[in-house]
Every structure is written in structure tokens, then in C-alpha cells.
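[Discussion] Sanity-checking designs against the backbone

I'm trying to build intuition for which residues belong where. Below is a C-alpha cell string of 157 positions. I'd appreciate it if someone posts a full sequence so I can compare it with mine line by line.
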């Protein structure tokens, strides 16, 4: 059983590190480069595709990380059951749940994209909002990753 616990801790912490990296790359590289596209229509399409794919990967990494960390806590013997696993799992879940804040505003903009009339200012605002969300997610996931690394290091696993 100790090897299963160590594997769950490793998978959870690694997934949280990948989540941090994905969010950081989106906020500093991908989303700012969308604003350099020559017109609003390709920028709107690219933003919607990037957001859709990023949401898929972010939710997957968040779910894998949280599930692995909670499973590690559950499988741990009572004498070595550390609460940092629960806290880190909650931070991982919260990081993935940040998309719920953006879902309302994203649904409002779908009608604009379907009609074909794209306003450059609206596309820029959506890109800036998504970039802000990814900055926040980077901080939250980075905090969780730090907690996970320190916890695993403290466990000696």
C-alpha cells in the first residue's frame, strides 16, 4: 500500500505542476499573441478554440490532481495521514473550478461569434479577461504545487 500512496502523491503533484505550467503559458504566451492578429474575426475564432481546448486540459489536469491527492489521503495509514494532501487537493479542485467564473461571460459572447459580426474591442476584452483568469489560476495552482512539493519532501516519499 505505501507504493500506491507514493504513486498517488507523485501523480497528483506532477499534474498540479503541469496545470501551473499550462496556465502560465496561456497567460504569458498564447493569449497575448492573439491580440497581435490582424483582424477581429480570426482572433475571435482562435480565442474561442484556444479557450475550448485549454478548458478541456485544465479540467482534466485539475481532476486528476485532486483525485490523486484525495486518494493518497484516503489510502494512507492513519499514523501517516497528512492533512496537506486534503489542502493541496482542494487547491487543485479550486484551480479547475475557476472556469465556472468565465462560463457565464463566454456564453454571452457565443451569439456574437455565430452571427459573424465580430467587434475587435469585445474580442480584446474577452482575451484580457481570459488572460486575467489564467494569471489567477497560475497563482492558485502554483501555491498548490508548492504545497505538494513541500509535503512530499517532508514525507520523505
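Best answer:
Here's mine. Compare freely.
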Amino acid at each position: 500500500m505505501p507504493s500506491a500512496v507514493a504513486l498517488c502523491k507523485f501523480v497528483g503533484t506532477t499534474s498540479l505542476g503541469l496545470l501551473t505550467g499550462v496556465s502560465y503559458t496561456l497567460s504569458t504566451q498564447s493569449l497575448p499573441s492573439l491580440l497581435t492578429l490582424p483582424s477581429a474575426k480570426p482572433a475571435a475564432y482562435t480565442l474561442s478554440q484556444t479557450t475550448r481546448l485549454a478548458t478541456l486540459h485544465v479540467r482534466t489536469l485539475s481532476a486528476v490532481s485532486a483525485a490523486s491527492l484525495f486518494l493518497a489521503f484516503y489510502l494512507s495509514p492513519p499514523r501517516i495521514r497528512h492533512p496537506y494532501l486534503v489542502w493541496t487537493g482542494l487547491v487543485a479542485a479550486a484551480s479547475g473550478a475557476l472556469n465556472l467564473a468565465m462560463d457565464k461571460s463566454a456564453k454571452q459572447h457565443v451569439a456574437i461569434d455565430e452571427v459573424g459580426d465580430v467587434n475587435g474591442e469585445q474580442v480584446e476584452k474577452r482575451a484580457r479577461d481570459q488572460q486575467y483568469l489564467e494569471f489567477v489560476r497560475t497563482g492558485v495552482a502554483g501555491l498548490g504545487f508548492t504545497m505538494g512539493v513541500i509535503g512530499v519532501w517532508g514525507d520523505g516519499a
